[in-house]
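Entry type: protein chain
Record version: 2
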Amino acid sequence: MTTEKVNDLELVRLSDYFVPEKFRTVPGESSALLGGVTEIQVEFNIREKFAKRLHFDFSSLLIIYGYGQMNDKLCEINEHKYVRYLGEGVLKRISLNDCGERFVMVFELSDAPDILKAVTADEVEKLLNNCRHPNNEIQYRG
Protein backbone atom coordinates (compact mmCIF):
# COMPACT_ATOMS: atom_id res chain seq x y z
CA MET A 1 0.00 0.00 0.00
CA THR A 2 1.42 3.39 -0.94
CA THR A 3 2.16 6.04 1.67
CA GLU A 4 -0.57 8.27 0.23
CA LYS A 5 -3.18 5.53 0.60
CA VAL A 6 -2.04 4.72 4.15
CA ASN A 7 -2.29 8.42 5.02
CA ASP A 8 -5.85 8.46 3.62
CA LEU A 9 -6.97 5.82 6.14
CA GLU A 10 -8.61 6.90 9.37
CA LEU A 11 -5.88 7.19 12.02
CA VAL A 12 -7.10 5.56 15.25
CA ARG A 13 -5.53 4.89 18.63
CA LEU A 14 -4.36 1.31 18.91
CA SER A 15 -5.02 1.52 22.66
CA ASP A 16 -8.74 1.81 21.87
CA TYR A 17 -8.52 -1.80 20.64
CA PHE A 18 -5.62 -3.38 22.55
CA VAL A 19 -3.72 -2.63 25.74
CA PRO A 20 -0.53 -4.43 26.81
CA GLU A 21 -2.14 -5.82 29.98
CA LYS A 22 -4.68 -7.73 27.89
CA PHE A 23 -2.49 -8.79 24.99
CA ARG A 24 -0.08 -11.70 24.56
CA THR A 25 2.24 -12.95 21.86
CA VAL A 26 2.53 -16.64 20.99
CA PRO A 27 5.14 -18.68 19.10
CA GLY A 28 4.42 -19.16 15.40
CA GLU A 29 3.71 -22.85 15.82
CA SER A 30 0.98 -21.96 18.33
CA SER A 31 -0.73 -19.45 16.06
CA ALA A 32 -3.05 -22.07 14.56
CA LEU A 33 -4.40 -22.99 18.01
CA LEU A 34 -7.52 -21.32 19.30
CA GLY A 35 -7.16 -18.62 21.92
CA GLY A 36 -9.63 -17.98 24.71
CA VAL A 37 -13.32 -17.43 23.96
CA THR A 38 -12.86 -13.67 24.34
CA GLU A 39 -9.52 -13.43 22.52
CA ILE A 40 -9.09 -12.38 18.91
CA GLN A 41 -6.15 -13.59 16.84
CA VAL A 42 -3.77 -10.82 15.76
CA GLU A 43 -0.88 -11.03 13.30
CA PHE A 44 1.84 -8.38 12.90
CA ASN A 45 3.77 -8.24 9.64
CA ILE A 46 6.83 -6.15 10.33
CA ARG A 47 9.90 -4.94 8.48
CA GLU A 48 13.51 -5.18 9.62
CA LYS A 49 13.74 -1.50 10.54
CA PHE A 50 10.77 -1.77 12.90
CA ALA A 51 12.05 -5.11 14.30
CA LYS A 52 15.06 -3.28 15.75
CA ARG A 53 12.67 -1.34 18.02
CA LEU A 54 11.43 -4.49 19.75
CA HIS A 55 12.96 -5.78 22.98
CA PHE A 56 11.86 -9.42 23.03
CA ASP A 57 12.52 -12.62 21.11
CA PHE A 58 10.42 -13.38 18.03
CA SER A 59 10.61 -15.34 14.82
CA SER A 60 13.18 -14.34 12.23
CA LEU A 61 10.35 -14.40 9.67
CA LEU A 62 9.27 -10.93 10.85
CA ILE A 63 5.78 -12.11 11.69
CA ILE A 64 4.53 -11.84 15.26
CA TYR A 65 1.43 -13.74 16.35
CA GLY A 66 -0.70 -12.81 19.30
CA TYR A 67 -4.09 -12.69 20.95
CA GLY A 68 -5.91 -9.68 22.35
CA GLN A 69 -8.86 -9.59 24.71
CA MET A 70 -12.10 -8.42 23.15
CA ASN A 71 -13.10 -5.00 24.46
CA ASP A 72 -16.15 -2.79 23.81
CA LYS A 73 -14.68 -1.40 20.56
CA LEU A 74 -13.88 -4.87 19.20
CA CYS A 75 -17.24 -6.26 20.36
CA GLU A 76 -18.94 -3.47 18.41
CA ILE A 77 -17.17 -4.59 15.22
CA ASN A 78 -17.68 -8.27 16.01
CA GLU A 79 -21.36 -7.80 16.94
CA HIS A 80 -20.80 -10.20 19.85
CA LYS A 81 -18.59 -10.57 22.94
CA TYR A 82 -17.23 -13.97 21.87
CA VAL A 83 -15.05 -14.77 18.89
CA ARG A 84 -16.12 -16.50 15.72
CA TYR A 85 -15.14 -20.09 16.43
CA LEU A 86 -17.97 -20.29 18.95
CA GLY A 87 -20.35 -19.55 16.11
CA GLU A 88 -20.83 -15.99 17.24
CA GLY A 89 -19.64 -12.75 15.71
CA VAL A 90 -18.17 -11.79 12.38
CA LEU A 91 -14.58 -10.81 13.21
CA LYS A 92 -12.22 -13.53 11.97
CA ARG A 93 -8.82 -11.99 12.68
CA ILE A 94 -6.89 -8.73 12.79
CA SER A 95 -3.61 -8.07 11.04
CA LEU A 96 -1.28 -5.10 11.40
CA ASN A 97 1.00 -4.43 8.45
CA ASP A 98 4.14 -2.30 8.71
CA CYS A 99 4.09 0.66 6.31
CA GLY A 100 6.84 2.71 7.95
CA GLU A 101 5.64 5.30 10.44
CA ARG A 102 2.15 3.82 10.29
CA PHE A 103 0.68 0.35 10.33
CA VAL A 104 -2.43 -0.64 8.43
CA MET A 105 -4.81 -2.45 10.81
CA VAL A 106 -7.05 -4.86 8.89
CA PHE A 107 -10.19 -6.24 10.51
CA GLU A 108 -11.04 -9.41 8.56
CA LEU A 109 -14.80 -10.01 8.63
CA SER A 110 -16.74 -13.10 7.60
CA ASP A 111 -19.78 -11.27 6.23
CA ALA A 112 -18.48 -7.96 4.84
CA PRO A 113 -15.45 -6.37 3.21
CA ASP A 114 -12.41 -5.88 5.45
CA ILE A 115 -12.23 -2.72 7.54
CA LEU A 116 -8.94 -0.81 7.27
CA LYS A 117 -7.62 1.71 9.80
CA ALA A 118 -4.18 3.20 10.45
CA VAL A 119 -2.24 3.27 13.72
CA THR A 120 1.17 4.71 14.50
CA ALA A 121 4.30 2.56 14.63
CA ASP A 122 5.00 4.05 18.08
CA GLU A 123 1.76 2.59 19.42
CA VAL A 124 2.52 -0.83 17.93
CA GLU A 125 5.98 -0.71 19.49
CA LYS A 126 4.50 0.17 22.90
CA LEU A 127 1.96 -2.66 22.71
CA LEU A 128 4.44 -5.31 21.62
CA ASN A 129 7.22 -4.33 24.02
CA ASN A 130 4.90 -4.21 27.03
CA CYS A 131 2.54 -7.17 26.52
CA ARG A 132 2.97 -10.72 27.79
CA HIS A 133 5.46 -12.94 25.95
CA PRO A 134 6.03 -16.69 26.25
CA ASN A 135 9.29 -17.99 27.63
CA ASN A 136 10.08 -20.24 24.74
CA GLU A 137 13.57 -21.43 23.83
CA ILE A 138 12.48 -22.05 20.22
CA GLN A 139 11.97 -18.36 19.57
CA TYR A 140 14.91 -16.15 18.78
CA ARG A 141 15.37 -12.57 17.80
CA GLY A 142 15.67 -12.17 14.04
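Comment: Confidence is low (pLDDT under 50) at residues 136-142.
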